[in-house]
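Per reviewer request, we include the raw input and output of the structure prediction for the construct analysed in the revised manuscript.
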Amino acid sequence: MTLEAALVVPMALCSIVLLIYFAFFLYGRCLLTQDAYILAFRSTRQNNTGWEDNPVGFVADSASDVLGKKYFGNSKPAVSAASSGKTVTVTGRASANHSAMGRYFLKPISGWEYMVYMKATKRETAKHIRTFKRLKDIGKEFSDGL
């Protein structure tokens, strides 16, 4: 029993700790994906706020508010943005650095880094809906006239 316990208990403990670290990693990655898309989407929806010509500035200005302090077990993300025409791209980087398993064979010393890349396109939805409805009305008037 002692030899089995000496082999099984550390292996089980290592597996449980690894599952917890993987959960921190996935939690941080999901949050960063969500926050990067929120920043990209909100930067394309800025009308009459002074930011409509500078979506990259909006992302830089509002990144700390969106990211907040919710990245438990992960480093604070670094967010950058780029704009090309009507498309805004937000890139975020962070890492899950946990030193409890230090130099063991299962965990790299540098930690687990992750990067997300989200983009959103500025669309004038109301204008498209009005145009479609107008074309539909014209088509109806034309078909009623025949």
